[in-house]
Fold this sequence. Notes:
Helices cover 0% and strands 49% of the residues. It is mostly beta strands and 129 residues long.
Amino acid sequence: xxxxxxxxxxxxxxxxxxxxxxxxxxxxxxxxxxxxxxxxxxxxxxxxxxxxxxxxxxxxxxxxxxxxxxxxxxxxxxxxxxxxxxxxxxxxxxxxxxxxxxxxxxxxxxxxxxxxxxxxxxxxxxxxx
Length: 129
């Protein structure tokens, strides 16, 4: 298989869980994304681009997500914050992250605070080179 690793998964229901599991997989070319854990495990070393979109609907005043690399407690990314001004308005935030991965490295989206809306939120990644 000469295709590059790539995946896209959607969140099927609202969650306030710390480890967000985007369980509705649309694309998963090398089966590196696990829809049961929400974790991408690199099988082909290289430089990867990851994007995520998180939607909130006023469940909380602040939703904060970060990307976690290599399964450690250290978060290697800037915070992605969506602020709610009114309790019943939708808000979204998008993050983009490029990182050089080795075989076995893992990547996931972690919620620090807030609630993420299902049906609209997504997590994608693909190998650039």
